[in-house]
Amino acid sequence: MPIPMPKPPSKSRKQQLRRAVVQAARELLMQQPIFLDTETTGIDGQAEVVEIAIIDHEGEILLDSLVKPQSPIPWQAEQVHGISNEDVRHAPSFARLWPEISALMEQHPVVIYNSAFDLRLLAQSARRYGIVPQKPPAVHCAMLMYANFYGQWDKEREGFIWHRLWDAAMQSGLSLPTGLTPHRARADSEACRLLVQYLAQKYHRQVKKV
């Protein structure tokens, strides 16, 4: 969770937090983490994973697959990620992919943008097949890291604002390699990796307020 504060932090305190995030990002990259992202049928308690990508710290693909859900993909979700029911008709089930997914998460630190959401959706999908997922040993949320780095205060929540992945990427001046499409698992996992690299390497660079 973001660092709780009863009032907006001072400029010097924001700088301290930025330095802490930068150091954390550097130490994290030294551990050679993996970066995970999912696309789903929705966001509620019944939603399932329809695509998953896992890449290593250098951007090499470890897993990139569509996933056939048990329930149809609603049109609202398709409008976000572009994945249709026809696309996943012959895709492997979540149960078939789970051994590989869980092994990778056991073997490496895992970085996810909005880790609470993706871990919940992985668990929901697993339970549909009677699988009892174990929480990975080491999970890091890039969204919370970026929130403390960017330092935009939310008066109502009394904490820093959580930015959407592609807003964070734009604010940081990041761009995807040719051929990758935003809101697909492979692209979003790469955007997350690039963002953590940015946090580790661009400490003195000014981010763009939008």
Labels describing this entry:
210 residues; alpha/beta; Nucleotidyltransferase, domain 5; five-stranded mixed β-sheet; two-stranded antiparallel ribbon; globular
Assembly annotation: single chain
**Low-pLDDT regions:** none
Helix content: 40-55%
**What is the average of the pLDDT values?**
92
CATH fold topology: Nucleotidyltransferase, domain 5
What's the CATH architecture name?
2-Layer Sandwich
Secondary structure topology:
Blueprint: H1 11-30, E1 34-40, E2 49-55, E3 61-66, H2 75-81, H3 94-107, E4 110-112, H4 115-127, E5 139-141, H5 142-150, E6 153-154, E7 159-160, H6 165-171, H7 185-201
Parallel strand pairs: 1-4, 4-5
Antiparallel strand pairs: 1-2, 2-3, 6-7
Report on the structure:
With 210 residues, the chain is α/β, with parallel strands linked by helices. It contains seven helices and seven strands; from the N terminus they run H-E-E-E-H-H-E-H-E-H-E-E-H-H. The protein has helices at 11-30, 75-81, 94-107, 115-127, 142-150, 165-171, 185-201, and strands spanning 34-40, 49-55, 61-66, 110-112, 139-141, 153-154, 159-160. The protein has a five-stranded mixed sheet, with helices on both faces. It has a two-stranded antiparallel ribbon with strand order 6-7.
